[in-house]
């Protein structure tokens, strides 16, 4: 396996993009990545596209060749491959693209992620994303995705004394960071009180503990590290890309306060990258539900099990400690176009490692980690990227 | 949801029919055709047998849902829990016959046969298990609870044993 580098990045505005179609946003992000990486589309080997539910959202399946076609590349007859893993679809597409380049099967690939979620009603969209949990043995009995995460939160509070305000601290941080991110879905700041007093979705989680339904797309251009300097002055190496899966239903997990898929993917990724959590300066953590961010920090080894609440109270990941999280605004405030989020996380890490993150810049960022979850943790993807000096 | 899709799960949803691995004796719900516990999974192939859960268990964690799942809008706020059965398997279901604020981790519950939801005024009605505090569940369903009430016994399907 050869080393793989990120040569270019692209991303659309995230949000309710009423005037923009799925094709438009998919192509915009992809071309930005190509232009940023100074690669001719003639040299592309393949396109990977992370997308969760275009069939349900848009009544359009078979979207990988569709994006390829409207990118003007149909006559090149490139392979175009859609990848689905619930909320981790984009991260999984990146994993597939990484493997393809690492193996030598292709030299250059574009990995895109795109989702158009606002062409259906909020109720319909919620029903569609709930289906990343087990329809037959969870949803049929009245569960929703936030309700399942709320049960993780309840158990975590019961076991470890985690407080309601510890959960709320993460959305507050995310909104603050997103206020500095022009592409974020939400640019407003929120207070701890606003999060705690937001309308209850599933107790103890309120509306402001939950990431929004967003439209958006993101893309990266991948190529072999050995020739990366021909295409960019600031290549970023993919030091690790790891996936781990677990039981579909939350109730079948070994421990309801741990995502074993995250713990295992994290362990594998740190081992592959030969890094440890304290080596990471910037991390994009899946916080689709506030409790998910806390649990992830524990499962990835950034804090000991049960201590994420305390870390939130101390602001350990909000400017004080060695690792800063969700400088993009996270899923909560940068937005959550399902298929795009895993790719967008890595786009933010590349900005940070290049030193291009403007007033969100973490000084001296060398190593970044992205963490993406499907459903309640049936899939986790962990990616570690590293600045090439 | 197509009728067959719900109907084919009747032994599980109505009667809590699970399965047990005859190699290692671990119990599963819903039934599985391969045992995840056996060290080499293939040794359990063809050796899973039906196993009836009693319906008794304990609340492991819970939430009170305010933004309803599809088809449950009329019930909000409703209590949802993960229950560990005395036989071992954990499952997700609503908790009824108590005020949501009285629900707590560790509460002893028993499965009770209830209406889950209906597919609109002319659609299929889905039945299945919910949970009730153990003392409550032993009592007959209280009258006048509308959608919460179990159907009369004569309309209930024949109990059937689970087949894996």
Question: Could you please describe the fold and organization of this structure?
Answer:
The complex is a heterodimer of chains A (389) and B (164). Chain A has a 10-stranded mixed sheet, sandwiched between helices. A two-stranded antiparallel ribbon of chain A has the order 5-6. Chain A is built from 14 helices and 12 strands. Chain A has 2 domains: 4-121 and 214-236, Peroxisomal Thiolase, Chain A, domain 1 (3-Layer(aba) Sandwich); 124-210 and 239-387, Thiolase/Chalcone synthase (Peroxisomal Thiolase, Chain A, domain 1). Chain A has helices at residues 22-36, 54-58, 63-70, 89-103, 122-130, 145-160, 164-178, 192-196, 260-273, 290-299, 308-314, 316-320, 330-334, 338-354; strands at 4-11, 46-50, 80-83, 109-115, 200-202, 205-206, 216-224, 236-245, 282-284, 324-325, 367-374, 379-387. With 389 residues, chain A is α/β, with parallel strands linked by helices. In chain A, a hairpin with a 2-residue loop joins β5 (200-202) and β6. With 164 residues, chain B is mainly β. Chain B has one domain (3-150). Chain B is built from 3 helices and 8 strands; from the N terminus they run ααββββββββα. Chain B has helices at 3-7, 10-15, 134-137, and strands spanning 17-21, 27-28, 48-52, 56-65, 78-85, 90-95, 108-118, 125-133. Chain B has a 5-stranded antiparallel sheet with strand order 6-5-4-7-8. In chain B, strands 2-1-3 form a 3-stranded antiparallel sheet. The two termini of chain B are 22 Å apart. Chain A binds chain B through residues 123, 126-127, 130, 136-144, 146-148, 150-155, 158, 199-205, 249-252, 256, and chain B through 6, 9, 13, 30, 60-70, 72, 75, 77-78, 80-82, 90-94, 105, 116-117, 126, 128-130.
